[in-house]
């Protein structure tokens, strides 16, 4: 029941945090007076037309009234209308969310698949050539600007070698939409061509996104394993004649992963944020490209909606990490 | 051994320090070091997109300007943004964390909840939202980064202060009649210094990456500012032929961020022996 208590206490904070987020972003974005009415009305509109539009959009009201309306609309899931697509922002964002989540999760898989084993190897073979090389690589991985890496990899593997598609999420229309996650949808409909094509398109963006995260995981896993590997229970298991591989990859790793899981939660956030820029390079039709288009259109409401959606996902993931934590490390329940 | 000597004894940290020193020198002496100092604004369309040569170390860009010279001047923008943004964040975050950690209770809880709100969204997302509304300029990038980065410092100092406040030396100082302010500033703050210094170095690197990303997205200084992130986005349409155009600013960012990360790691080993055990 302690687990339920932790989850509930986190859930209770969800709404105030979200409200605070909306408050902060809304007021910061209204410090500088931009005039969306004028942008929508266009250059040739008369002053009267702009005024009328302003009244229609509620922009003539004081800021707190606008904020109240925004929150009231938000409660019903209405984030306003996009200047760019002329559709409801919430609809646009929800439609694009699966693309970003799919990319982020793919990157997560790559990062964990790469980072955790390499971290263990680095720790077990401490101070060897492999360890030294991995350490240099992991420090470098954290120093690279992801958008630059994305461009360089795209230039090399897509443009020069032609191994991977240049951009986009799939060639053509994509599988029949059920969840919006192309990999899942194509599996569900048995559309193997779409499945492989999505995977092919995803390869480069996911790897680009994953590299810095993998670097972080190598470092954390290495430190975690080193801490555990010298503990008494490992010594005991060794004395009992357990195979080293079993000790390392099962008992040591499980204990070492506790700090790594916390990291994975943080990493999901950084991947999600990193996706904004990487998506822009690969024209991946997710939230990031949407945000970038909205920036170009000076579409404040769309940007606001984008930050809120990201906030919701982010808070949700952190909650999930806390829950997983209680399973991996039952000590947190005490 | 003094801290400085130990730092220089660490190979990785000295490389980091050297890279940062290089950045500072380049930023200061850009007009002297740059072969074509005028190329920050000047253009020579007949010489556009020339590959690297003896005349143009890193080639020329779409305007025919010398890429190398523009990178050197870009160092000024990078360092200005990073120093001011991190400085302001530390200036806001550290006092807030100190006060919240020291007094706890409702005001402490309120301050920390406020910082949680900022931490609820990845920094770059919030920075994009702010920079977008304020309009593209270096000042606004600095403002956006400062407004979104202070909570990290508040969190850090809050946690440190909480554990330090329970220590005997704080009790002793209070028993001797020291005021709250005195205990906070003279007894607790110095003990949080090493954590702050370590995070500052790594934070500088992170801030440079975020600032470059904002520049890349078109939220930084408008052209012809030689900002590195913007230069990379300008270079995009000339790839893969003009590879040097994007490679040079990308490498510049890499080296500088690497410098701060290496220095930060080295400082952590020296200033925070507790962490050293695990990572070595």
Summarize this entry quickly.
The complex is a heterodimer of chains A (334) and B (280). With 334 residues, chain A is mostly helical. Chain A contains 13 helices and no strands.
Describe this structure in words.
- The complex is a heterodimer of chains A (334) and B (280).
- With 334 residues, chain A is mostly helical.
- Chain A folds into 2 domains: 2-75, no CATH class; 93-333, MetI-like fold.
- Helix content of chain A is 75%, strand content 0%.
- Chain A has 13 helices and no strands.
- Chain A is globular, with a radius of gyration of 24 Å.
- The termini of chain A are close together.
- The mean pLDDT of chain A is 81.
- With 280 residues, chain B is mostly helical.
- Chain B has one domain (2-278): MetI-like fold (Orthogonal Bundle), CATH 1.10.3720.10.
- Chain B has 11 helices and no strands.
- In chain B, helix 3 packs parallel to helix 6 (138-165), helix 4 (105-119) crosses helix 6 (138-165) and helix 5 (123-134) runs antiparallel to helix 6.
- The longest helix of chain B is centred in the first third of the chain and has 37 residues, at 67-103.
- Chain B starts with a helix and ends with a helix.
- Mean pLDDT of chain B is 86; it is low at 276-280.
- The interface between A and B is large, with 61 and 52 residues.
């Amino acid at each position: 029941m302690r687990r339920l208590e932790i989850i509930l206490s986190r859930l209770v904070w969800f709404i105030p945090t979200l409200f605070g987020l909306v408050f902060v972003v809304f007021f910061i974005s209204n410090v500088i007076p931009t005039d969306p009415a004028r942008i929508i009305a266009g250059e040739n509109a008369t002053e009267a037309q702009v005024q009328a539009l302003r009244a229609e959009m509620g922009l003539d009201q004081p800021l707190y009234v606008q904020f109240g309306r925004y929150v009231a609309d938000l409660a019903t899931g209405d984030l306003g209308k996009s200047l760019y697509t002329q559709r409801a922002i919430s609809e646009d964002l929800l439609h694009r969310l699966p693309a970003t989540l799919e990319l982020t999760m793919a990157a997560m898989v790559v990062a964990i698949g790469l980072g955790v084993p390499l971290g263990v190897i680095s720790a077990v073979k401490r101070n060897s050539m492999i360890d030294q090389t991995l350490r240099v690589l992991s420090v470098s991985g954290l120093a690279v600007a992801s958008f630059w890496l994305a461009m360089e990899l795209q230039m090399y593997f897509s443009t020069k070698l032609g191994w991977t598609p240049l951009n986009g999420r799939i060639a053509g229309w994509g599988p029949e939409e059920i969840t919006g996650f192309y990999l899942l949808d194509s599996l569900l409909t048995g559309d193997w061509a779409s499945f492989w094509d999505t995977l092919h398109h995803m390869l480069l963006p996911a790897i680009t996104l994953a590299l810095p995260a993998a670097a972080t995981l190598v470092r954390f896993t290495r430190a975690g394993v080193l801490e555990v590997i010298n503990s008494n229970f490992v010594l005991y298991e060794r004395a009992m004649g357990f195979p080293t591989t079993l000790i390392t990859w099962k008992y040591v790793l499980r204990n070492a992963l506790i700090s790594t899981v916390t990291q994975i939660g943080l990493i999901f956030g950084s991947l999600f944020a990193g996706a904004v820029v990487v998506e822009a390079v690969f024209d991946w039709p997710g939230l990031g490209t949407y945000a970038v288009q909205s920036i170009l259109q000076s579409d404040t409401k769309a940007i606001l909606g984008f930050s809120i959606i990201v906030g919701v996902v982010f808070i949700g993931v952190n909650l999930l990490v806390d829950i997983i934590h209680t399973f991996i490390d039952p000590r947190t329940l005490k | 051994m003094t801290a400085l000597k130990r730092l220089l004894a660490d190979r990785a940290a000295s490389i980091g320090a050297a890279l940062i020193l290089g950045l500072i020198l380049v930023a200061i002496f850009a007009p002297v070091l740059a072969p074509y100092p005028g190329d920050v604004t000047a253009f020579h369309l007949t010489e556009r997109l020339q590959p690297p040569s003896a005349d143009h170390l890193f080639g020329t860009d779409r305007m025919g300007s010398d890429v190398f010279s523009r990178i050197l001047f870009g160092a000024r923008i990078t360092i200005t943004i990073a120093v001011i943004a991190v400085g302001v964040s530390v200036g806001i975050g550290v006092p807030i964390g100190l006060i919240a950690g020291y007094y706890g209770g409702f005001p402490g809880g309120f301050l920390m909840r406020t910082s949680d709100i900022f931490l609820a969204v990845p920094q770059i997302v919030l920075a994009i939202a702010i920079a977008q509304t304020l309009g593209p300029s270096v000042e606004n990038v600095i403002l956006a980064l400062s407004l979104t980065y202070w909570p990290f410092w508040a969190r850090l100092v809050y946690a440190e202060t909480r554990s330090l406040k329970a220590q005997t030396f704080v009790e002793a100082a209070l028993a001797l009649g020291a005021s709250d302010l005195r205990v906070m500033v003279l007894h607790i703050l110095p003990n949080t210094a090493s954590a702050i210094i370590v995070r500052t170095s790594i934070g500088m690197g992170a801030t440079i990456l975020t600032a470059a990303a904002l520049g890349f997205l078109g939220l930084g200084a408008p052209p012809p500012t030689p900002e590195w992130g913007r230069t990379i986005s300008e270079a995009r349409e000339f790839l893969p032929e003009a590879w040097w155009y994007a490679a040079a600013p990308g490498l510049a960012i890499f080296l500088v961020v690497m410098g701060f990360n290496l220095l930060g790691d080295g400082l952590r080993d020296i200033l925070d022996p507790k962490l050293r055990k695990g990572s070595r």
